[in-house]
Amino acid sequence: MERLTPQLVADLQDSLLGWAAPRLRELPWRATRDPWAVLVSEFMLQQTGVARVLPKWSAFVDEYPTPAACASASLGDILRLWQGLGYPRRARNLHASAGAITTRHGGTVPDDLESLLALPGVGPYTARAVLAFAFEHDVAVVDTNIARVLARFAGRRLKPREVQSIADEFVAEGASWLWNQGFMDLGATVCRPEPACDECPWTHECAWRGEGDDPSVGSAGVSVAQSRFEGSDRQARGRLIKALGAGTVKIGDVARVMDRPSEVAAKLLTDLERDGLVVFHRESGSVSLP
Hints:
The structure is a single chain. The protein folds into three domains: 1-24 and 140-174 and 183-225, Orthogonal Bundle (Endonuclease Iii, domain 2); 34-133, Orthogonal Bundle (Endonuclease III, domain 1), CATH 1.10.340.30; 233-288, Arc Repressor Mutant, subunit A (Orthogonal Bundle). 36% of the residues are buried. The longest helix is centred in the first third of the chain and has 17 residues, at 88-104. The protein has a three-stranded antiparallel β-sheet with strand order 1-3-2. Helices cover 52% and strands 3% of the residues. By secondary structure, it is mostly helical.
């Protein structure tokens, strides 16, 4: 970013760290540096709010305290515990990552970007989050909250490479854990879709300050509102996964359980089988969790 001078970056770092230190949200995964526990939290927080994750994270790390413990469980058991978080492919990917960590890395979560990115379901954000929050490496994390702050601060929509590049310029060396956590909290609690600009420690340097079109809309890394859940295919799949948590379901009952027309239910069931989230038992005409 053209206007970023070393002195301005230093001033912005000081103001954000000073703002964050007494205000940081107390979340249980912030109280640990166990890379497995951090990785679990990052998988769960993808597209799911903190309030829903809190009880599930605690239950999961109690039940599966290590990658090996998770890998040794069946995917069905993982899906049962995951119930309520939605997007069960994340549970499948976490289970697969646990297996990869166990077989490739001796059960220890790797501490380098390349190895983390090679794990199933781990993208640039999750990999950097583990490096920053578990290993306290000086890396910049970019989630939707940080991407929104950066676009507004820049006063324009940003391209994907720009977002990470600017975040890299900002990261406070030697304080990356607090820096990234505070930066995310700034976007989550102040620079929200409806911002409270007068509460922001960067308000005087921000190029937008709530005036005119919001540059974060359509900017790289800023998520859009999710489609309606009520009545969606996601809800229908979730109904079936929940029912399967208690036992098998007859294929002829799937449409009723999903509350979908039979042709729609058949397609959704096929998709779930393709994703490895259900298993057909054609001899008994039923379906179960893996």
